[in-house]
Amino acid sequence: MELTGRIALVTGSTSGIGRATAHALAARGAHVLVSGRSEERGAQVVAAIRADGGKADFLAADLHDADSARDLAERAVRTGGRVDILVNNAGIGAFGPTEATAEADFDAMYATNVKVPFFLVAALAPAMADRGEGVIVNLTTMVAGFGQAGAALYGSSKAAVSLLTKAWAAEFGPRGVRVNAVAPGPTRTEGTAPMGDGLEQLASRAPAARVADPEEIAQAIAYLAGPGASFVHGTVLPVDGGRAAV
Length: 246
Ligand code: NAP
Prior knowledge:
By secondary structure, the protein is an alpha/beta fold. It has a single domain (7-245), classed as Rossmann fold. It is built from seven helices and seven strands, in the order βαβαβαβαβαβααβ. It has helices at residues 16-27, 39-51, 66-80, 103-131, 152-172, 197-203, 214-225; strands spanning 7-10, 31-36, 55-60, 85-88, 134-139, 177-184, 236-239. Helix 1 (16-27) links the parallel strand 1 (7-10) and strand 2 (31-36). Helix 1 crosses helix 7 (214-225) and helix 3 packs parallel to helix 4. It binds NADP nicotinamide-adenine-dinucleotide phosphate.
């Protein structure tokens, strides 16, 4: 129960990797603030955590700009008293040819994947720094680290998150806030279900040669959020079955 007494805000925890992360952090004793757009799935996640003896509350949020990020941060602080752990997990993953990408889709991807984490950190990290402790874990992706046809938009938005991770480690680390990221490989979630066989194909080039379960990504996030990672700052941890290595 290494996170007992910690307040953790996990964006996008009504589904997939975020939901698995909410469970993993609650199992370690954290009071988890579950967030997403779906009130119904949010209530289910909270009920499941409480049924396991954990602490959780749901904060509905449609995250698309700085105001929506600031509003969620304010409600999280009001509900939990403070936020010790922020997991920037909510994200859009869409693939396709560059020339077929509409401007509105470009803007929505960068708003959810880059702008919202940026303004959540702006809203929450200064108070962590004032207290001299805090943890931020960002979600990037293996296709932020190499070129993949069809992943120009998604990969570039997450490459921004990888750099933000290092920039924030430099900015907030000296005041006690550890900022790191996890870069998952193909993982079976509600979000990747429409990819069908494409997910297996993407996974096949990695040494592990299989798709991950969300719990395998959540374990890495929980490690970075916990005291076992006390000397880990500014790293982007590949949890991709070895794809980044080969
Ligand atoms: P998912 O199953 O699609 O779940 C996405 C979550 O984000 C949901 O809880 C969703 O909430 C929330 N969300 C999406 N847009 C939102 C918005 N505008 N406002 C508020 N909440 C929003 O996704 P996933 O596959 O678990 O992926 C989670 C993260 O890991 C993402 O950042 C993704 O890019 C990254 N990642 C995933 C994979 C993979 O293979 N799955 C690989 C690499 C990286 P509602 O459903 O309630 O709307």
